[in-house]
Amino acid sequence: MTSVLFVCHSNAVCSPIAEALLKHLAADRYQAISAGVQPTDIDPLALAALQQLGVSTEGLYGKGLDSVEERYFDIVISLCEQAEDVARAIPANQFMAWHFEDAQCCSRPQAAKVVHEIFERIKLLVLVQDRKGKPLW
């Protein structure tokens, strides 16, 4: 099982969205976790946008990097510039930087847009990772 850590500054919008979407799409092959540099509560509009798509938000809560101390990950993904340097220091086989605006969602349409943008990247991540080492034809 591939372990993936999503890191953003507050763990309030982007990283918990990414965690929930990866679990929704491929929980049988990926262990998804999220954490923040300075964690806060998860934005209720982000949770509502996930739930509207039928994505479970059970067990999602704002957590700090201390919750993943001394863990090694297959992939660490930084979701905002403010968290990139910290995320790069986390032991992992692979690091990626996906920069989103890590701010509170101020409207339902904005929350839905963020969920959609992250979901597109999650689908691409799963496609590429699942194809590694397999012939294309």
Automatic annotation (TrEMBL):
<dbReference type="Pfam" id="PF01451">
    <property type="entry name" value="LMWPc"/>
</dbReference>
<dbReference type="InterPro" id="IPR036196">
    <property type="entry name" value="Ptyr_pPase_sf"/>
</dbReference>
<protein>
    <submittedName>
        <fullName>ArsR family transcriptional regulator</fullName>
    </submittedName>
</protein>
<keyword id="KW-0059">Arsenical resistance</keyword>
<dbReference type="GO" id="GO:0046685">
    <property type="term" value="P:response to arsenic-containing substance"/>
</dbReference>
<dbReference type="InterPro" id="IPR023485">
    <property type="entry name" value="Ptyr_pPase"/>
</dbReference>
<feature type="domain" description="Phosphotyrosine protein phosphatase I">
    <location>
        <begin position="2"/>
        <end position="128"/>
    </location>
</feature>
